[in-house]
């Protein structure tokens, strides 16, 4: 349901700006490789310090959890089931990846997030942090709604 609502919101926003609904649908179904290329060229946007602090808190909590993911059904969920797409402050809309957590611990998810950020894949970095919190949907949804804060949190975590 949330994915449908997000798609409709994007479609309405693009229709208002004159881009049309077809552009909205193609934006949500765009190739992840094109999205990753667009991501790496964008400049970081200003993020409220309170959001960054909260993101760091969630990252720190996951960093301390080294137990492997328990529950086959939950751990085998694809990231794309978390919603439709991530929307960054710079206007970039990136669809969620066809990736799984599998047996990785929350700590391992943060390591994967740092590696993805190091490669320049902002969206996948955020999704790995979301995967670290898949057992708490409210936290996972907050992370999805604040992807720029998550990225800043990853950049400052451990400083």
Describe this structure in words.
- With 159 residues, this protein is mainly alpha-helical.
- The longest helix is centred in the N-terminal third of the chain and has 15 residues, at 2-16.
- It has 2 domains: 1-30; 31-156, no CATH class.
- It has a two-stranded antiparallel sheet with strand order 1-2.
- The N and C termini lie far apart (38 Å).
- It is built from 9 helices and 2 strands; from the N terminus they run αααααββαααα.
- Helical content stands at 55-70%
Helices and strands: which structural class? Answer: mainly alpha
Order of helices and strands: HHHHHEEHHHH
Average pLDDT rating: 80
The rounded distance between the terminal residues' Cα atoms is 38 Å
The strand count comes to 2
Strand content: under 5%
Gyration radius (Cα, Å) is 15 Å
**So how many helices?**
9
Give the CA-based shape.
globular
Number of individual domains: 2
Biggest β-sheet strands, sense, barrel: 2 strands, antiparallel
In what order do the strands lie side by side in the largest sheet?
1-2
User: Which runs of at least 5 residues are low in confidence (pLDDT < 50)?
Assistant: 12-43
